[in-house]
Amino acid sequence: MQVDLNCDLGEAFGNYSFGGDHQIIPLITSANIACGFHAGDENVMNETVKLAKEHGVGIGAHPGFHDLQGFGRRNIDMAPDEIYTLVAYQLGALSAFSRIHDVKINHVKPHGALYNMGARDKDIAYAIAQAVYDVDPSLILVGLSNTLLISEAEAVGLKTASEVFADRRYESNGQLVSRKESDAVISDTEAAINQVVKMVKDNKVTAKDGTEIDIQADTICVHGDGAHALEFVSKIRERLTKEGISITKLGG
């Protein structure tokens, strides 16, 4: 049994530091690197790609809406062809730094509102998937387990990885609980670890209303901007290892 452990990183920009990338990267197997729209900038992208390569961590593009103030977590009404170019543009930006450091982008994971909208909307999911395929059909698309992001990516011919979240609660339909709700984010380390183990070993997660739903766990996400990100990553890695679960990067 094996699983990937990913984290959203490279979210600092300008004079603003953000997260503990240097401490987290050695503990994960895949890094989703902000591409300058919801967070990050050219200097941070360059440094994060370099750091990920040094630790043998899979490099992923993390494109989001052009929404620095809202950290890409606000829904923006865009036509599918605009979303297509939005994703392609950000992939191009990260690709430049990957070329500089002679390392290949391994996967793409949409960020925030773009991710959640793509999970629910077939046209948005298709636009994201088609953009990724047209830029590089060998890339793996990471999407919320059992949603349109996965099915549309597979329909266009992409490899996919179904993602589960250590630090988020679930609705009974498999969607994530909205961040507008007070209990959307899990802050208790033990609760997060127990949720992860259940998802990986049993392919189940307990939803907010108490029902158990089926889930596919190819990769586990811990949000890099979370207050407990470093502790979550460290403890989850330790527990999974004890459970005999191999932590391996996507496609590895």
Give a written overview of the molecule.
This protein has a seven-stranded parallel beta barrel with strand order 1-2-3-4-5-6-9, surrounded by six helices. Helix 4 crosses helix 5 (122-135) and helix 7 (189-202) crosses helix 8 (229-242). 39% of the residues lie in helices and 17% in strands. Helix 6 (148-156) links the parallel strand 5 and strand 6. The protein has helices at residues 21-24, 42-54, 80-100, 112-120, 122-135, 148-156, 189-202, 229-242, and strands at 2-9, 30-34, 58-62, 107-108, 140-144, 159-165, 204-206, 212-214, 219-222, 246-247. The mean pLDDT is 94. The protein has a single domain, classed as TIM Barrel (Alpha-Beta Barrel), CATH 3.20.20. With 252 residues, the chain is α/β, with parallel strands linked by helices.
Question: How many individual helices?
Answer: 8
Secondary-structure-based class equals: alpha/beta
Characterize the main sheet. 7 strands, parallel, barrel
CATH class: Alpha Beta
For the record, the CATH architecture stands as Alpha-Beta Barrel
Q: What do we call the CATH topology?
A: TIM Barrel
Count structural domains. Answer: 1
Helicity level, as a percent range?
A: 25-40%
Number of beta-strand segments: 10
Poorly predicted sequence stretches spanning 5 or more consecutive residues: none
Shape: globular
CATH homologous superfamily annotation: Glycoside hydrolase/deacetylase
Strand content: 15-25%
Overall mean confidence score, pLDDT: 94
Radius of gyration: 17 Å
N-to-C terminal Cα separation, in Å? 13 Å
The side-by-side strand order for the widest beta sheet comes to 1-2-3-4-5-6-9
- N-to-C order of helices and strands: EHEHEHEHHEHEHEEEHE
